[in-house]
Amino acid sequence: MxxxxxxxxxxxxxxxxAGLRPASAESYYADGLYGWYEGGPALVETAKIKDTSIxxxxxFGINGNSVKFDPGFHFGLGIGRELTPYIRVELxxxxxxxxxxxxxxxxxxxxxxxxxxxxxxxxxxxxxxTRLVPMIGAGVGAxxxxxxxxxxxxxxxxxxxxxxxxxxxxxxxxxxxxxFREDMNLGIFYHYSVADGPSWEFDSAPGTNFKLDSxxxxxxxxxxxxxx
Length: 228
Fold this sequence. Notes:
Radius of gyration: 20 Å
Shape: elongated
Oligomer: single chain
Number of domains: 1
CATH architecture: Beta Barrel
CATH topology: Porin
Strand content: over 45%
Structural class: mainly beta
Largest sheet: 8 strands, antiparallel, barrel
Strand order of the largest sheet: 1-4-5-6-7-9-10-13
Distance between the termini: 36 Å
Mean pLDDT: 88
Number of strands: 13
Low-confidence stretches: 6-27
């Protein structure tokens, strides 16, 4: 049910890219339009509860309590445009998944966290005489985040459904790509992304707000790219 509710339009608009015929390039950078897929592990830093009326079994508020997540995975895709040999602009989306490991003061804390980023990136690269091209980039946009609570029990409150929200997001990344053909490349990239202050309300606990300070994600991705 959760997967069906994702804003797939952000992903579907990219899926036709692979079927387009790539054009030849004269150097080891994409001279024009390009696209890519990527995937790899995703690690989420410990978050803090920022704003909630939920109290623990002793009647104390849980604002400031830690929320931990298990390692998960990341899938991404995007399209970009070469403005100069050194500057690119991109539109990126994808899917991130991590399961909920624990909530401080919770009796039970099962659940899953899903994120769909929609980001615009500015990228700097260094074309050279080799097939290896180093790159760094930064992006801003939004994250669609879903917290799928599966019997989260804190004091007298039980969260047992899912809730979604849009929140401001940004990222920084860097890596290197290897141009094994004039129109295709492989790469490895590290991303640090932030979904700022996601806040959820649950039908299973009417009037209850559950907000985190941020979701900070580290990913290491292998990429496959092509030039149009």
